[in-house]
Structures are given as structure tokens and as C-alpha cells.
Amino acid sequence: MIENYLQKLEAFCQSKNIESYEIRYFQENNRVLKVYEQKVCEARDNASQSVALIVVQNGKRGRFDTTDLDENKIPLIVEEALSNALSIDTDETFFLYDGKGDYHKVKPYKPLPQLAQLDKIGYLKTLEKAAYEADKRINKVIHTTYKEGYSRLLIRNSLGLKLEKEKKYAFASIYLSAKEGEVIKTDSEGVCFNKEEDFNPKTIIEKVVPRVVSRLDARNCKSQKCNVIFNHEVAGDLLAVFRNIFSSFNLDAGVTKLKGKIGEKVASDIVTIVDDPWLEGGRATAAFDNEGVPTCYKELVKDGVLKKFVYGMALADKHKTQTTGNGSGGLRPIFFNLYIKNGNSSKEELLQHLHNGVYIDILNGLRVGCNETSGEFSLGAEGFAVENGKITYALNQFTIAGNIFDLLQNIEMLGNDLDLSKSACAAPSLLVKNLVVSGV
Amino acid sequence: MEKSVIERVLLKASETGADFAELFVEQGRDLNFSMGAGKVHSISSDLENGAGIRLFKGDFTAYAYTNDLSEQGLMDAAKKASLALNDKKLISSVNLVRQDVENKHFVKEALFSKTHGDLIDFMRQASDKIYQTSSFISRVDIGLQQKQRHILIANSEGRLVEDDRNYALYGLVGVAEKGSEKFSDCVNVGGMCGCEIFDINTAEEKAEVLAKNCVEMLGAQNCPIGKMPVVLDPHVGGVLIHEACGHSLEATCVAKNASVFANRLGEQIANEKVTLIDDGTLPNAWGSTNIDDEGEKTQRNVLIKNGILQGYLIDKFNGRKMGMKPTGSSRRQDYTFVPTSRMNNTFVDNGADNPKEILASTDYGIYVAQISGGSVQPQSGEFNFSMKRAYLIENGKLTTPLKGAKLIGTGAELLQNIVMVGNDLGYSGPGRCGSVSGWVPVGKGVPTLKVREMTVGGQKA
After folding, report:
1. pLDDT band of B4, cuts 50, 70, 90
2. How far B448 CA lies from chain A's nearest CA (Å)?
3. Chain A closest-CA separation from residue B225 CA (Å)
């Protein structure tokens, strides 16, 4: 049925003499289960489909997305996509891709096949029960959730491009609180079933329960300038919010302080930052970008020196360079598996080297606490005091402030704990000097 | 959509023992423009068409959504949702009675009535104004959106309501640059309204203020750190209140006893100067609706009165658990989400203090002029929120502009620490709040507020 719709859409585009057009069909199914107090409290079973039409006329691009697949609306869709294109007045020329490049054979993330045999409800029930059994200070398991999904994307265009991408995913998570006296702390943790141990609910429990209860006797952090370890999870989150400093859109708009610094040292010598769409099992592994262009492995920063910005076709043409296979279709490029290369120090070595300072394993308010233009950040943080090379006590929420461009230069040591199995943006633990913390 | 079709769908969904069945249908259209450096680089349109079927049985929820709005498509989704149950049928008939919805949000100029050319001219004039205001402005980005939705809600209790929601919004982003210093700031203007909001006089006023603020902040100093008094501008404190205590009053967490404010009705939880209201009825306000996403009439809910906790924001499902009536607060981003209790327009009511005296009473502290949002853990009440523009207060006067920094604390402490409440209630621009039922439009406001003490996380040690 959908094939019939797509053919009619295509025929109407041709009848309008559109120079070039691209049609994308996206279909998704997902299921959600939630268990609360040993009962399934929610079950969802969803299906969706949508079509996107992209037209390029006189080198300008217009787009129309629809979940309404009523054939009678095809003229509206094509005509409005066209008038969207004709109203664009930027200097950039937009292109569609003909699909003639070499596509790398990639192996993206997918859950292990034994997921089919897993009793999901049983898993969640055990997860909830195990949390309460692990420590009597666990006050409430607020929810346990399982989600799985499958999606399929078909792309074809008038230049002969024909591509297909399938994606499968699954994850389980817990959100809970611990209480002692009047003090309450909350935390969450999850798995995505791409490792054997993810199938045992204890994997989540062993991470989250000790972490949340360790905070119950947290003390206040004193305000100071100090050296800090960001554990690998928060280091990855920090890189994720600032990734657009490597975007050609920010470069073109003059809103990244890395402008004009290719070949210059922008980070500590030990820092290499990679965008790797080919990473085996990676969460963002893909053979082509959102323009259908083949992806490639690239180092954005090598040994502290800025090498590249990421590009899609239109800005690459404007800047007289090649697309890096990071196109979104519009001007703002996308990233794939983006990470700081692994180091070789163990957690103990990092703590020894830090000697006195703060170990951070939770960052709050990242989305709003970072300014990618100035590089300034001020964030809510939680973690532990480090004294004489050892973790001594947990800290109540405090703030951590600095500037990402200084931070990159001030990375003194890298952990050996880079983990790309759960997130597409990752880093090893980072030891950073000279940040400002403010306590309560 | 025919009434008989909806009735059949609800019956089909209830076949396996649901005690309540609901259909939510959403159809609509979007048009989005992006301009950078005075040129339009992206225009995209959307047609949205989807439905969700929700079932309850006791404290269990089943849900299924689809984009296929044909009778067959809806029946398929109804069947999928029903497969989560396997029990004796409880609902044997559904008799829908259409209810009228009173519209409080009149549109003066219909959405999509302006041509692309007119809208682009509007954006360009606003963009030009920002550039013209100062030679330090190095980049301007402008976004403009129109979103129209028609919703239908029907349930097994016989409710059948339909409503239209019209949203129009534009946002201006300016970047000022001087040497190696860069500062960017933004302003959003939007409402539940039509194209009348794209008024160039208002946009130019906003543009000029934005440009001046960006330039002023080029000379900003690092913010100090530590605990100190904080005074909040009327346009910003709403976000603080929204994060610090609004989320903790939503039934989503209260029903599970997972909120610091659960089981505390009638208790003094805030300074007696604080009256907190969530009002979804404000005409044309960004966070308003005529009816919520369960078809319940939107209300003005007094949550805290003179410091005493009066009520929570309650949806149907959590209301069952709590033994309380819904408050017209059930919301969702769209049909792909299950609705739950959320805020609409949240504000602290006017107090008796003169804003000038509030400032004069502060020897040393921070004045927060612009924020960019925050988040909270509802059970512990620990919140964080980001100031974008701030000033140092010295001897009761604003002195040095300060760079952005975090403010942190707990909601319970903050409510007790609001020691002065101004008489100058103002509403901040349109906001978007993200939670379990997705992103929903929210409005916020407060008069000038003085907080006795908060932790400020600057860069100046």
C-alpha cells in the first residue's frame, strides 16, 4: 500500500517539473512495559509511519513531512515543499546525492539475539525486587521500564539514490530513591541488552544501589578552585552538549571559538577526538548520513591539534571543501559515534594523581547550563570528595563552572574506561585542573 | 469522524475487561522558518495525523497509537491495546454525548494566512533591527513557527469533545562579539493565538533590547560563588518556581508518594508571602488550553495559598489512586505520549513589596535578569537552574553585569526562603517543559522575588 502512495507522490513531483526530489519513508514499531509494586502497570504497543518529501529547485531546498498519507493531499504536499524551496534566499546551493559513492559495510548496535527469549515482565519484577533486597535504605522504586523498537527507513531520489536502513533497539531502566532519616536521594540506571551481563537484573542493581545509598550521608562541598575528575559517563555528556563547536554551521555563523584554528593546538596533547560512523556495535553507526552520502572515520582533534570540522554537502560547497558525510539535509551537520580516544590510567591512578579535589559522577542541567558560543558552563554536580588520593565522602549537589575551551587545554590525564556500548557520545574519565566549585 | 465509528472503536478496545477506554485523535499542520544572518536557510512543513487509544483497569494502563485514522486502522490499534488485558468484559455500551467547548483563545489573524514573503519580511526586519542596534552584533538567527492542531477526545464514560489549538511563535537569537569575547542571548515571543503575534513593532522593541543586553554582557565579569541573597526579575523567577516546586506538585510523582510535598495538604510549606497558582485559562497565553488532553475543562488551580499547600495538579489516572478529582492538567506532547499531570501557566501571585525596596534591602547579592531553564528531581526536591544574565547587587543597587551561572538548592528550602514578594507580576516568554509525557508549552511568571539565600555557582573563586 505504501509503495502505491510513494509512486503517486513521485509521479506528481515529475508532473510539476521539479528539478530534483527525494522521498523518505520511515516506519516504526515499539513496545513499552512498566512494572510497579510487582505488577505490570503499563503496556504500550505502537506503530507509526511517515513520509518526507525534499525538493531542490534552483539550488534551494524545501521540505514537507507528513503522517497523513491521504493521496488527496499529495498536491498540497508537493506544492508547499516547492514553495518552501523557492522562498529560500541563502548563498548556499543545496544538492541531492546520486548514491554513486562506496558505502562501508557497517555493523551497528543491536540487542543480542537471546532478547527474544527474555521474559521481560519477569525481568522487571526481579529488577524491582532486587533493588529493595539490595539495601534496606532503598525507599522507593519509582519505576522500572522496558522498551523495544524496530524502525525502517527507505530513501530514494530522482538522481538514482536508493538506500535502506533498519534499526533495532531495546533498553531497561530503573528509577529509584533511597532514604535515611530525612535525607532522600534519587538515581537511575539502565542497560541496552548488547552485552551478556545486561540480561541479569543484578547488573543494574550493582551499579545503582551502592551509588544512591552512598549519597545518603553526603556532606556539603566547600566553595573553591580545584582539580576535578569527571567520570566517563559525565565526561561523555559534557562532550555531547558542546559537540557543535566542531560543526561547520557554527563555523560558518562565526559562533564557535574554534574558527580559524585548524592546525592549532586547541586541547591538551593527550586529547584525540574522533567521529566514527563505522564503529562496530556503535549506537550511531551508519553507512550513510542524512543526505545519503557515505560516511567516513575522522579525527577532529589529533594529539590536541584541531584537524577538521564536520560538513554536509551545502556548506562543504560554500567553503570549497568536501562533505565529511555528516550531512543532515539542512545546514546543521550531524555527528555519529563521537568520542575522546581512550587513555590508559585506572581509576586509582587518576585519584592518586588528583590527590585532593572532587570526583564528579552526576551532572545536572546540562541542556541549559552550557553556552556553546562562549564555551562557558556552570552545572549542577554530584560526586565525592577526594583527599590524599582516596575517595573520602559523598557531596551534596554543588555547582561546577568553567569554559570548555580552557577545559580541553587543561585535561591532565585520561582514564582507560571509554565505553561506547551505551551512548553515541562518550569519553574516558577526565582529570581536569582549575575548575570552580560552589557548595551549599 | 463519525460518532458511531468512535463508539465501535471504544467498545472493541474494552472487550478484554478495561474499566475505562479513551480515544485521542490529533490532526494538524506546522510551518517552520529559519533565518541566519538575514537570509532564510530552511523552511519545512508538516501534516500531523495520529490517534492514541488508552485503557485503564484499576491501576493498569494500556496504550497504542497509530497514524492510520481509518476505521480499520483505529480498530487495529484498539485491538493491540486490548491485548494487554485478558479479563471479563466490563463495558457493554458506549453512548457518546457531544459537549461544547468554550473557546477562550480567539485568533485575530488565522494561522497560515500570511504568505511566505510576508513572514520572511517580518523576520528580516527584526533581524535588521538587531544588527542596526550595535556594531558589536556579529550574528543573528531567527526562527518562526506556526502550529495548528484539531483534537478529538472520546471516552467510554460518554465524553466526546473537540477543540482547536493554534500556536504562533518566533525567537530571536543575537550574538555580540568584541575581541575574543562572545555572548549570545535569545528572546521568544509566542502564544495560543494566530499570526497577529507577528507584529513588527513588538518584534523591533524586543530586538533592540536583545541587542543591548548582548552587548552589555560582553563586559560581564565572572559571577561570584557561594551562598548569598538572590533577587529575581519578574520575567525570570517563574522558571525557578516551575522547576523548584511546580514539578513536585504534579500527581505524576505525588500519587506514588515520590514527591517531597506528597501527603502534606494543609501544611505550611512556603513562606506566608507565597501564593502559587497554575492557571491554564489565561486568554491567548502560551501554556493555556480550553480543555486538557483528557477533555477536562482547563482551570485556575491554587496550589499554595499564603504558604499553605492547597492542592496538586491531577490527571484522571493518578486522581483514581489519590482519590481526588482531575484538575484539568492532563497533558501530552502529542498522540505518541500517554498524558499525565503537567503545569500550564505557573506563577506566584502579586505580593505587597515594592520592587525598589526589595533591591534597596539587599546589601550584597545577585540580581537574575535572564535564565535559560533548569531541572529538578521531584522526590528529593533538588533543583538546578541556569542564569543567563545577572548583575551584582551592592548596597542596594545593580552594579556589575555578571556571566551566567547555576543556582542550586532544594524546592522545600527555597519556598521557605522567599522573604519578599513584589507587586509587579510579569510573565516570561513562552517555554517548553519536558517530562514523561513529552514536551508541552508552558508559561510562567512571578513578581520580583527575594530569596534569602541560594547557592550561586560562578567561575570566580
Report:
1. very high
2. 22
3. 5
C-alpha A267 chain-centroid distance: 22
Q: Is the pLDDT of residue B427 over 80?
A: no
Q: What angle do CA B18, B19, B24 make, to 5 degrees?
A: 75
Residue type, B37: A
Put residue A232 in one of left, alpha, beta given phi > 0 → left and psi -120 to 50 → alpha.
alpha
Neighbours of A264 (CB within 10 A): 10
Interface test with A, best of B114, B406, B413, B435 (most A CBs within 10 A): B406
C-alpha torsion sign, points A307, A309, A312, A315: negative
Q: Which of B124, B173, B182 should be substituted to probe chain A, the one whose Cβ sees the most A Cβ atoms within 10 Å?
A: B182
Q: Which three cell numbers stand for residue A160?
A: 538514482
Share of chain A above pLDDT 70, in %: 100
The stretch B197-211 carries a mean pLDDT of 97
Coil vs helix vs strand at A127 = helix
- pLDDT for B180 equals 82
Interface of A with B in 115-144 (CB under 8 A): 140, 142
Cβ distance B67 to A367 less than 8 Å, yes or no, reads: no
- Name the average pLDDT for chain B: 94
H or E element, residue A204: helix A202-213
Report whether pLDDT(A440) > 90: no
Residues of A in contact with B405 (CB under 8 A): 378, 399, 401
Residue B398 and residue B367 in contact, taking contact as beta carbons nearer than 8 Å: yes
- Nearest CA to B206 out of B42, B370, B422, B368 is that of B370
